Amino acid sequence: MNSMSTFAQTSPFASNPLQTKDELSKLLVGLLDPLAAHTSPGGARIHLGYTATHYDEAAAQLEGFSRPIWGLASFLAGGGEYEGHKRWVEGFKNGTNPESDEFWGHMRNKDQRMVECSAIGFAIAVAKDKLWDPLSDKEKKRFEDWLGGMNDKDMPNTNWLWFRVFANLGLSRAGSPRFDAKRMKADMDHLDTFYIGDGWSRDGPEGVVQLDYYSSSFAIQYAQLVYSKLAKAEDPERCEEYRNRARKFALDFVHYFDEEGRAIPFGRSLTYRFAMSSFWGAVAFADVDLPAPLTWGVIKGLQLRNIRYWAKQPGAYYPDGTLTIGYCYPNQSMTENYNSPGSPYWCCKSFIALALPETHPFWAAAEEPYPTVLRGTIKALSHPLHITTNVGGHTYLLSSGQQCSYPVKQSAAKYGKLAYSSAFGYSVPVGNGTLEELGGDNTLALSDDNGETWKCRRDTREARIENGKWLRSMWYPWKDVEVETWLVPPHPDSPLWHLRVHRIKTGRPLTSAEGGFALYGQGKNGRALEPTTGEAFGTFEQGGLGRAASQAGVSGIADLVVSSNGRSGRVIRTDANSNLMVARAVLPTLMGEHEHGTANIWLVTGVFAIPSIEDEIGAREGWTKEWEKRPSVPKEIQDVIEALENFDGAV
Where is the DUF2264 domain (predicted)? Predict the structure, then answer.
């Protein structure tokens, strides 16, 4: 093997096969051990870096301390032995002691400390003998007072309410007088108002349209499942309802994962990484049998393949084994203002299967691949307004209708793009000027100042799935500009393409830039891709076509309107660190100039993509034949176009 093929490209955990409970335990210990060097003398704080958050440094260091507990507590609950757990016991003593230099601080309204109480409450509930019982009565009293201090505080009207539920679960298991049953029931009753059907809950009250990983693995579904096991004796009816929600939800959620184990990056907090798959572990923890084809072997595969993928990503870890902030590599551009250096350890929620004995069906079952019956499928998901597909060996979703209900950095990129891919990820802006800075993959970017600045879809209106076949929505970037968009998934005649139709009505001249999927932009020799033709690695531009091929696969875009003022194809080398998956990317793009007036402007776009297959380099042989199979506009959409006007241009 060429030594340069592994130079600076090896994760400290890549050699772990992650097939058994013991191997998963070793990964957890491998993540916990390096934290010792970053832990305060009294054990209550873990300091992993110097980047800041909107909340205070003490809370950030509490976050570093608390989040690994999701994994530690599960490991201990399942019979695991870890001498290092004593660091956390000492941390509980000092972090809750107002006289200690390491005191975490009393909780205030809407305090970040509340978030970290969820892992702490879970730990008391499942590993009380190792993490609570060693404390003295005086230490327990201080701990109870600190943890119960959130019961009379205001909280955001979001999934945060679950964190107080878990704090009270822990207090209940400890037999603490600070347990507030009335408060917990009120929180639970309110959280249930977020439920919208078919297993789905939104992350907030009516009017909130976020249905991202917080509605599943990061918070709501995960919490419901854990609660359904821990509180089934006290609250059996609600617990059974949560189990039934999981059964329905799982049949949708499975479509967000590909055969290699990757989940589709979408929304915020993606630095939590393999927490994206923690729902599957929570299903096992709660002993919930899922409908076919989701056997225990399939559930095990969905969970372990995702963790396996992340164990192999060198950019997810520093050399000492601690986690970086970012996605597939360190990246501050894609983070939120609540991501501290300790935030990524939310991924430890995916270790919950360690709480189960090896005789549990999750561990006893043979791991199964992604279900055959779910391959080559297209599914319209009415609640999140997504159409998912894995036709042509590419798992991605088409999206319209979601946006964050409060300010979040790069929210247009995280929720407003037209498509999101498990293989190609998505990109975020790294500046506010050039197209290279924009990272405009899977967007229709518009400029009214000759490309000085760009607007991308963020506030999507009137979104719906029509006929169960495609997405249709409106966007109003300026008061005198409206954009209507149809997003059409692959057709059997052109399986590697999806179709976009845009109607623009504008009162001002516009420049448009429509991007396909961003692609790794380096060749086999480690140099930037050069122009080429045919199937060789490189970039290709011709008229209304733009395309790039590299070891990651092929990405292309085509203007499907034949007219005198058609768009030109380009391949843009996006600025470094804009894409979540690869730090150096290229982006096939269509550029156009559009005059203002009363007439509608129609853009019809074909987007082509085929990712490489695991352990192979580049797209499969013969992809150029698929490239020639352009998609066509469905008759129903063509009828809408013709009803609006005499369509100018042949498709």
Answer: 20-370, 377-638
